[in-house]
TrEMBL record:
CDD domains: HTH_MerR-like (cd00592). PROSITE patterns: HTH_MERR_2. It comes from Streptomyces halobius. InterPro entries: DNA-bd_dom_put_sf (IPR009061), MerR-type_HTH_dom (IPR000551). This is MerR family transcriptional regulator.
Length: 108
């Protein structure tokens, strides 16, 4: 039986594919390009650059930016909102790793 060919991964199904321009990302989030630039300055998200040098955002980055916007809309200063989102993301990743370890019986 010949090996089954796999369908190439659709880039738009990839959470990390930088599919969105700054303008489109800002529109989707209901915010301004300046807000997205500020998130970059605070190192919350680092957009990839197109060949022409334009910022491009992934769906994952937009989810992160949306969470930061929620916090800012609630009155949290942007620098604190960025730190909170980073810590939330790190906690979620640590919990995911712990669950995987538990599922494989490798924890004590």
């Amino acid at each position: 039986m010949p090996p089954r060919s796999t369908r190439p991964v659709d880039k738009f199904d990839d959470d990390d594919y930088p599919a969105y321009t700054m303008g489109r990302a800002a529109e989707m989030l209901g915010t301004t390009p300046a807000f997205l630039r500020a998130l970059g300055e605070h190192r919350l998200i680092t957009p990839l650059r197109s060949e022409g040098g334009h910022r491009r955002y992934s769906r994952y980055q937009l989810r992160i930016a949306a969470r930061a916007r929620e916090l800012v809309d609630q009155g949290t200063p942007i620098d604190a909102a960025c730190r909170i989102v980073i810590l939330e993301d790190q906690l979620e990743e640590a919990q995911r790793i712990n669950e995987e370890l538990r599922a494989h019986g490798t924890t004590s």
